[in-house]
Amino acid sequence: MKYRLMDLLACPICKNFPLELIVFSEGPIKGKFSWSRCEEYCGFEGKRIEEITEFKCDDCFKREIKEGILICNKCGRWYPIIDEIPHMLPDGLREKEEDLGFLRKYRDRIPERVLTRGKPFNLSSA
User: Shortest CA distance to 86 belongs to which of 27, 22, 32?
Assistant: First the structure.
């Protein structure tokens, strides 16, 4: 997933924007790319555009998020980023065992609130 996608993503359930991003691993983008500055929110800096004094767009557009998590701080839902793809499905279409496996794998890097109270699945309800 490219950092610039954070300028567009909102929670599919409650529509909250922006989502919190925690990156577990990233790598360089291969090949050519073109870019334009984000409009409202910079995922690379984790800030709204008006809060940024020095833009690092060149660095941002050279990186790809391989594994991570997106968290909605309004409704408590979380969405894994697996193999560069954000899995932002409605609750009824999510795979419980896959999601729980993701939480277990990265439990030392995921906030406690997600591990114990995250929706639709968490380790307390497993």
Answer: 22
